[in-house]
Amino acid sequence: MKGYYEPRSSSSCAACKFLKRRCIPNCIFAPYFRSDECKKFAKVHKVFGASNVSKILVEVPEEQREDTVNSLAYEAEARLRDPVYGCIGAIALLQRKMVELQHDLAIAKDRLARYATAAATATTTPSNSTSHDAFFNGHDFHGR
């Protein structure tokens, strides 16, 4: 639940465990890095540094801190996966995929429209055998 965390037991938060320090009762990291989230904090720390993350959290309104930490964790994960482009690389890949899918959709819609037009034309135009029969039924070719 956003903005809510249960009071901690005596265990340290993931940040304090990682930094090997005693976790104080008003630890800025504790609500956002549970004791079992050491990998999450390690990634954020590696990319942004604990001091910078602490400064960011102090400056952000408390009701936005959880979203801020989630964003930092996502950005850190992306940066570690792709050190050059980070999140932007993932976003660009998704945008290219979206353009490709929109193109495919446009082609499919065009084909569907052509099939629908062909089907409509086929049902409104009399078949060849019907017009052939009407022509020959109206003429006496055998001299009778």
Automatic annotation (TrEMBL):
<feature type="region of interest" description="Disordered">
    <location>
        <begin position="122"/>
        <end position="144"/>
    </location>
</feature>
<comment type="similarity">
    <text>Belongs to the LOB domain-containing protein family.</text>
</comment>
<protein>
    <recommendedName>
        <fullName>LOB domain-containing protein</fullName>
    </recommendedName>
</protein>
<feature type="domain" description="LOB">
    <location>
        <begin position="11"/>
        <end position="112"/>
    </location>
</feature>
<dbReference type="InterPro" id="IPR004883">
    <property type="entry name" value="LOB"/>
</dbReference>
<dbReference type="Pfam" id="PF03195">
    <property type="entry name" value="LOB"/>
</dbReference>
